[in-house]
Amino acid sequence: MDNASGSRPLEQRPGYVLKMVDAVLRTALTTALAPHDLTVAQYACLEVALRHPGASAAELARRAFVSRQAMHQILTDLRSRDLVHVAEVPHRARPVTLTDAGRQAVQAAAGDVLAVEERMVATLTAGQRAHLLSALYTCAESLTDET
């Protein structure tokens, strides 16, 4: 049923559905990562650092979709567990690299993360999966400032 303002029901609004998917995906990933003693944000940081060795904390934050402040806390936690190394470079962005333990941690968790992602799209055909990804990228690009 439409509300008094005449807008579509929440279940027909893309933003609402995306938020619902985000919530259930995050719950599934949290469960999958618990045995690895990683949070979703920590896993994202490790995955991005694996793919972009030497990236700065600011770059990791952008690529992992978290604030710089959140990334600082994530890196502090991961450093205390010897999963990442942050180089001390005066007057420059400090490059972040995975330690051997960090590489092992992300590789051990990756299969469980991929299993969650596969479960999410298991009932979609290959064409539907391709269309879903294309549509989601188009949505993101539509909201990205080109400045």
Automatic annotation (TrEMBL):
Name by which UniProt lists this protein: MarR family protein
Which Pfam families does the UniProt record give? MarR_2
What highest taxon heads this organism's lineage?
Bacteria
Write down the PANTHER family for this protein, in alphabetical order.
HTH-TYPE TRANSCRIPTIONAL REPRESSOR YETL (PTHR33164:SF43), TRANSCRIPTIONAL REGULATOR, MARR FAMILY (PTHR33164)
InterPro entries in UniProt = HTH_MarR-typ, MarR/SlyA-like, WH-like_DNA-bd_sf, WH_DNA-bd_sf
GO biological process per UniProt: response to stress
An example molecular function term from Gene Ontology annotations: DNA-binding transcription factor activity
Q: What is the lineage of its organism?
A: Bacteria, Bacillati, Actinomycetota, Actinomycetes, Streptosporangiales
Limits of the HTH marR-type domain: 31-129
